[in-house]
């Protein structure tokens, strides 16, 4: 409806209408199929040749619709816009359609009909023609969405939190010491204690927590992003022991093997730099660089 040259792609998911949850009208179809037909109908009413496609994604909701061309010439755009208005208003629940700015569309013809049924006169200011205001108070999302998955946090801030949490786990009592499994050696490597996310949060300062709460997932997301150092299972934080990680499959296709090799040792090993016992793996077995000279 924004312009005649508009094109769209939509992947229907949650069952919502224009003004609230979608109400089923047929029992012979599944709820998903009925909702897909409704979304396709919206496209047809808006004057599009609607194409349906099934995406190759790991989801049960993967049927999409594409509108690339119109079913009418540009000269009929105003007429079709009125038809769209009527269709939208016809989907509006009677209990909600009260000619109120807060809940409906400002279209005189529809308000006249509704207020006639209610035995009252339409408000004097409800005189705009179709298409003037689609939905008062509607706020579209920003053109550039803010990334809030902790990935855009300052690197210094993230490094400080990682170091603080790791030290907290290493110094927690009782400490866990894991025997070195390489060649039956009796050397020990301190894996520290596991703590709940709440216990970890209680040891962080207020400014740090405030900054993390503004991100989706907060502390848990930041720790999971730092996969090299931490393992978060069932709400508890552990320091990752790379000796226990499963070795990569030997049956990987050649392309995957090549990509894995290219990604090997592109980052410094956090344990080699910060852990009091160093890295639990020898340099040749660690996927991270033990020193800048090993970086690729």
From TrEMBL:
GO BP of this protein? tRNA methylation
Major subcellular location class: cytoplasm
What InterPro entries has UniProt attached to this entry?
tRNA_uracil_MeTrfase, Znf_CCCH
Residues annotated as transmembrane: none
Q: Tell where it localizes.
A: Cytoplasm
Q: What is its EC number?
A: 2.1.1.211
EC supergroup of this enzyme:
transferase
**The organism's lineage?**
Eukaryota, Metazoa, Chordata, Craniata, Vertebrata
Family of this protein: Belongs to the TRM44 family.
What domain of life does the UniProt record list for this protein's source? Eukaryota
Q: Which UniProt keywords apply?
A: Cytoplasm, Metal-binding, Methyltransferase, S-adenosyl-L-methionine, Transferase, tRNA processing, Zinc, Zinc-finger
Q: Which gene encodes it?
A: Trmt44
**Protein's job:** Adenosyl-L-methionine (AdoMet)-dependent tRNA (uracil-O(2)-)-methyltransferase.
Which cellular component appears as one GO term in the record? cytoplasm
Q: Which reaction(s) does its UniProt entry say it catalyses? A: uridine(44) in tRNA(Ser) + S-adenosyl-L-methionine = 2'-O-methyluridine(44) in tRNA(Ser) + S-adenosyl-L-homocysteine + H(+)
| Name listed for the protein in its UniProt record | tRNA (uracil-O(2)-)-methyltransferase
**Zn-finger region bounds: C3H1-type:** 263-293
What is the scientific name of the source organism?
Orthonyx spaldingii
Q: Which GO terms describe its molecular function?
A: tRNA(Ser) (uridine(44)-2'-O-)-methyltransferase activity; zinc ion binding
The C3H1-type domain, residue ranges = 263-293
